[in-house]
Design goal:
Layout lengths: L2 H18 L5 H26 L4 H25 L16 H16 L4 H17 L5 H20 L4 E8 L2 E8 L2
Antiparallel strand pairs: 1-2
Helix pairs in contact: 1-5, 1-6, 2-3, 2-4, 2-5, 3-4, 3-6, 4-5, 4-6
Length: 182
């Protein structure tokens, strides 16, 4: 799946947010926020091993790279731009990590198996929608998270051999070193 198609599906998902007006029940939202999220990300990590034959190991590693990169970037943005959640539970609303990670995993898997794209983006949409319903995020948090996930995935797909991720430890703290060849 190319970047334009991914962006179209992302914007379609956003349109679904607006039209749905969060029509999930609270129990459905809780399920999508917890089990749905874990299932989407977890299955997204192993799906390449099941469906992509000889490329399965490489694809699975690249999904893992994107997941780690997306989680790291989301964490950094949450620290740089602390924003109170709608339910006032903490100051980690921006951006939505759930949206970022599910859309990153969806974009990677949809790229390699375009016939499954609607399922992947649909699951990411419901996981993200659940966070709005449960008042864990503002709309912009979810939109930025989803766009961030797609962008990180697309950067990985455009690199020749994926990324090299390594821990970075210094006197001032720890981090993650990312290296890529384009």
């Amino acid at each position: 799946m190319n970047f334009r198609a991914g962006l179209f599906l992302l914007l379609s998902s956003v349109a679904a947010f607006a039209s749905a007006q969060y029509h999930l029940s609270n129990s459905q939202a809780e399920w999508w926020s917890n089990q749905g999220y874990a299932g989407t990300v977890g299955f997204g990590l192993i799906a390449p091993l099941l469906f992509d034959k000889e490329d399965g190991k490489t694809h699975a590693l690249r999904v893992a790279e994107v997941s780690i990169g997306t989680a790291g970037l989301t964490y950094a943005l949450k620290r740089a731009f602390p924003e109170t959640r709608p339910d006032d539970s903490d100051r980690e609303s921006f951006p939505s990590g759930t949206a970022a990670l599910t859309f990153a995993v969806a974009h990677m898997n949809a790229h390699w198996r375009p016939k499954q794209a609607l399922l992947w983006y649909g699951a990411a949409t419901f996981c993200s929608l659940s966070r709005l319903q449960l008042q864990k995020h503002h709309e912009k948090d979810v939109l930025v998270g989803a766009a961030l996930g797609v962008a990180v995935a697309e950067l990985n797909l455009r690199s020749t051999h994926g990324w090299v991720l390594a821990p970075l430890v210094s006197e001032n703290g720890t981090g993650l070193l990312l290296s890529s060849k384009f």
